[in-house]
Specification:
Elements (H helix, E strand, L loop, with lengths): L1 E5 L3 E11 L15 E8 L2 E5 L2 E5 L3 E5 L5 E3 L8 E10 L3 E3 L27 E5 L1 E3 L3 H16 L5 H23 L8 H16 L6 H8 L3 H12 L3 H19 L4 H7 L5 H12 L3 H8 L5
């Protein structure tokens, strides 16, 4: 069983501690809590029962439980070890996922979020196994020890620090799982070209972006660069350059007293009339009307 968690999930650690099975008989009682719970064996074997299954966690092994999921210890006749535990909320919640169905698994992302002119979130799904034998157990145990210490002796921004530590631990488990799995996590070469191209446009859109300069900078033919950009961005490269310039012009219109002619030159055009027509085509109103309708005060 596997969980998927969005990179944009809001995590909040509620409680965390180190539990010594041999000194606490309540381990064998049934436990429930309204939060997710991450358990990592700290030393020796820990015998846990959850979801109708009995399992044995060795040092560094992790178990992720869902809200209100019943869990308890078993096998009281053997000496057991210690385990770290942390209860936390997660919004949006974790989803169960079948990694054998490619339609449910989207680790490799090549979306439009690199573009400055779009306002969409890029979630990035992390795949976290319910039970996992971590190869880099010492990294995980070290962070869990820090988390418990942070929660036991709260100071300053302890909740913020706790969130960072939990996120790092979940990231350790997810990354370790990827390294040990057969999942294809390689990006195509064209995607790296796309990112280089977008970065160049983002930084030099005000200048005269000629095909010769792009070919010289990125070492690809202009036609190929246009194809790669359209493939990943969904719009022509020329249209994106126009959007960048209009985006900058909107900021200058609202937050400076510069004239339309000055703004035209600053965003990379030489003809104010052409710029005004382009601005109206993109925004639906002329630059001066945009300024008059939305601007309140100038600095």
């Amino acid at each position: 069983m596997y969980y998927s968690m969005s990179r944009l999930s809001v995590l909040d650690v509620k409680w965390a501690d180190l539990f010594d099975v041999n000194t606490n008989s309540s381990f064998f009682d049934k436990h429930y809590n309204p939060y997710y719970e991450l358990i990592v064996a700290a030393e020796a074997a820990v015998h846990l029962e959850a979801g109708g299954s009995r399992m044995v966690l060795q040092a560094g092994d992790s178990l992720l439980l869902g809200p209100w999921e019943q869990h308890n210890g078993w096998n009281p006749d053997v000496r057991q070890g210690k385990f770290f535990w942390a209860q936390f909320s997660c919004s949006p919640g974790l989803d169960t996922i079948n990694i054998n169905r490619s339609t449910e698994l989207n680790i490799i992302h090549a979306e439009r979020t690199e573009l400055r002119t779009v306002e969409i979130n890029h979630e990035d799904l992390l795949i976290v196994p319910r039970m996992y034998k971590n190869q880099k157990r010492y990294h995980l145990l070290s962070r869990f020890e820090q988390l418990v210490e942070t929660m036991r002796k709260p100071q300053g921004y302890f909740r913020y620090q706790s969130t960072l530590l939990l996120a790092e631990m979940l990231g350790f488990i997810a990354s370790d799982f990827l390294e040990q799995s057969d999942l294809d996590t390689a990006f195509p070469v064209s995607y790296f070209t796309f990112r280089k191209l977008v970065n160049h446009l983002n930084n030099f859109y005000e200048s005269d972006i000629t095909r010769e300069r792009l070919e010289r900078t990125l070492d690809y033919k202009y036609e190929y660069l246009c194809q790669v950009f359209k493939k990943y961005a969904g719009i022509p490269m020329v249209q994106y350059i126009q959007q960048l310039r209009v985006q900058r012009a909107k900021h200058l219109l609202l937050h400076t007293g510069k004239s339309i002619q000055e703004i035209t030159m600053e965003v990379g055009y030489s003809d104010p009339f052409y710029f005004s027509r382009l601005f109206k085509k993109v925004e639906g109103v002329a630059p001066q009307h945009y300024r008059d309708g939305k601007q309140t005060t100038l600095p």
